[in-house]
Structure prediction request, 285 residues.
Amino acid sequence: MLRVSLPMLTALALAAPLSAEEITAPEPQWQSSTPAAMADSATTAEQAPMNQPGALSAMGDPISPPSSNAGEANTLPPEQEPRKKFRACAPSLTVVHPGEDESPLAVRQKFKIFYRYTYDPCLYAAAAAAAGIKQAQDEPEEYGQGAEGYGKRVGAKIADANLATFFGRFLLPSLLHDDPRFFRMGKSETTQRRMVHAVLSPEWTRRDNGTHRFNYSRVLGDLIAAAIGNAYRPEDDSGAGHTFRRTGIMLGTASGSAAFAEFWPDIKAKLFKKHKQEVAQIPTD
Prediction:
């Protein structure tokens, strides 16, 4: 048998607790060995919020903040997230609805309107449709028929629109301090007054200082664009008479676009309201 003496038992009893304590006890983390630094560390441990990284407990141990998915908590479900307004056509950039900001545009903002028009899909669609009508009418005859004639007509329409936008929406409004946007009246006015306001908007504009006057920028811009168009049009579609005719067509198209912008929100609201009512009346199983 193994004989254990009293001194040996005493040594084992003292050594066992010391070994366990050495394994489980955390190592002290001192920032400095000086008494002043130790006092500052203790003060910081008492004042630091418990949920901030780097906070120390009363024992000097670093405290891990509670794990929380803050980003996930603040993220709304896809169906509840606000949708950004998608504007497919550049003309919507030049429409100001009632209650919206009516502050004057800076020069760079007026240039943005012109820049946005240059790659507007609605511009190309309108040019393609107008060229198709001219193709069917065989006007002008010198363009001919087929793909080549159609391409010339489309190119001429796009060039006319870009030139009119450059002069009538950017350059002249910047020089003459005119506002190239259309300001809707909304339901606060009568239908007749709203129609007159929309139809005359290409000739009567709001200025940057809030006053109104004849729209020199738009009228002269369309006239200059039509005059430049004589350089790339055939002889039977150029000259003073054709220049003023194209200018009138541009201004008339602008009046129609303004009338559409004035009344379309009301029409759309009625259509969607009627559609919702019809959907609500559909019996469900």
